[in-house]
Amino acid sequence: MIQLKKKLQEKKVEVLFTDYYDTLVHRRVHPNQVLRICSKILIKELGLIASIDDLYFTLKDAVNHLVEKLKIDRNELAYKKLIDEVFTRLNNANIVDDSQKHVFATLFEKAQLKAEQSVQYLNKNTVQIIQDFKNEGGKVYLVSDFYGPSSLFNALLKHHNIDHLFDAIYISSDVGKSKHKGSIYQFILSDLAVEPHKVLMIGDNLRSDSIHAEKAGLHSFLMPHKNHLRKNKMNSFGSDGNQLRNCVSDIYDYCNQKDNLPYTEYVIYYHFFVERLYKICKVQGIDSLFFLSREGLFLKRLFDSYQTFHQIDSDKNIRTHYIKVSRQAALQISLKSIDDEEFSYLRKKYDSMSLNEFFKFLNLKETDKKSIYDTLDVEYDTLELDLFESKQFKKLKKNAHFLKIYEAHCKSNRAVFKEYIQSFGEDIEGDGINVVDIGWGGTMQEAIYKFFDEKVKVTGFYLGINTIYSPNNNTKRHGLNFSILPYVDYDSNILRANAQQYEQFASASHGTCIEYSKVDGGYTVEFHDENEKYLYDNYLKEHQDKMFEVHQKLLKNLEMICYSQEMVSTELNNVALKSGILQNIRKIKFLKILNAGYYQNLSNKKTGIDYEIPKNLLNPKEFIKFLMKPEEYFRYIVKLKQKLYNSNRVLYYIFPGYLVLGYYRLNRFLRFRALRNVSLLKYNYFR
């Protein structure tokens, strides 16, 4: 750069023309990759049902077509003509409709800006020389051959905080003249009324920035950027899948460093869940989401962060709300009269139950329970195999005190919940409601649907669906990372194996909502188990803060990778296999601490998580099944090392974890790659 300074002085330059790419800034990727990133952003923000390749190659072909049709240099192609041509092609393919023309044009430039910002970094040496030249009274103009408009470059200069250095911007697509043909130089000289011998053009292209500039009478300086040009060519190699794999693998390794709490890699699942949720919202035109407690609080934090990072149009912001609800509270707002209520969830969930446990579910006051005790002589603590068909419960249903308390309780809960949900300011009865939670079947979704007398559409979006209820057209539910609907596939078997850990690591700082009542200026009555509170304060808060930090790393690291959701599913599977099979002592001890405080909302009989494993796993018949379809046994494999650690340390230490992991990978490769064309095997042996 010493030569550039010397030339500025020797030629007594008063005006400096500078190129943009590989002069002022460099890109971390190949130039064509920027178009792919732009395509990725547009597809996401417009909610298009299309691949990145669909949009990228449409853009490339549109340019070639217009250049041939208009008989012009591609750098002189008007930006609006290009956008119109791309839109026409996508519209003809039913990828966009007529009503999207204006928003497509608006978001196209914003997507391009976002893509460019994500890959650019300043050439500080060049910027410093321009700064010095400007300080000495020189005039500086940006001159670039590019299909984008000058407004794009204005925004990029502001992004880099160097817009103050430039007196004006000349872009080939705006003026219809280019450096490539040499026509832009005379246009600018005439526009500025400046003599050419007072001007120096700096850039990296021999023809455009040097030869044509000197033909127009300007001085020129060719930037010595062969290394960057060589790097650009090298960036055209590689694959999206490998880039994604390396990115996720690096994050996994970072999370498993000794300085971090165990299992922070679970943020990888959460991150891609909120990404898929965001995309679905854009595709379906969803503009508001209700995240359900308690796991929804952390999921909302991640979603809000994802949206802030990626959105390019604040007018299209998805409103997010956090609503305190639980299975216990949700069931209470949906209770029918005592004669009509079947208590189907409680029947299904608990084989046995006592009347006092039933009262606990209703969260009855001690005075109300006493009034029932005083008027009804039954065994309140005796466990009944089917409480709701028992003689004791039939007697309870005839008790006047209980009926009065039950009806008042139901009425109060419904009234307060109605006021609570209206406080969010959404037109739920008109637009329906979209609820978001960890999973696993949709109990709270069903309860909210019943609360609105089955007249309001309640759609559920879950990290996973692990239980089949009876979804209808108004209660559709979607497991975005795994689902047993419409059927259980390989990935779902792997990803649902440790379902309870998704819940544990996303716990909230507050207690479980057990009732809706106007207390302390709020709408909820909560119970916070002391074990859970201790675990959150001492472990999970730090765990979540670290996961959030890693989530932000993922946002940045994934920005330049043009991956598909099929690639994501593969990487989620890889993470689940490694995380589930290769459990070290740190992880096992950490889970042991958390599991001791895992509180089951509706039961006072159970705390913690059982890790029972069938005893017949190693008999020949079961072992052959395992060899054929190991994914169906993964829910036992992930518990095996914890079981061995607690029962037989010798077996724990000799457990061949890497061998098991290797077999899972080999099995997947053989079935889904090597043998995928032998279709009958899939139908006859692997399903």
From TrEMBL:
The chain crosses the membrane at residues 650-666. The keyword Metal-binding applies. Gene3D superfamilies: 1.10.150.520, HAD superfamily/HAD-like (3.40.50.1000). It comes from the Bacteria. The keyword Transmembrane applies. It holds the Pfam family Hydrolase. InterPro entries: HAD-like_hydrolase, HAD-like_sf, HAD_sf. GO terms for molecular function: metal ion binding; phosphatase activity. This is HAD family hydrolase.
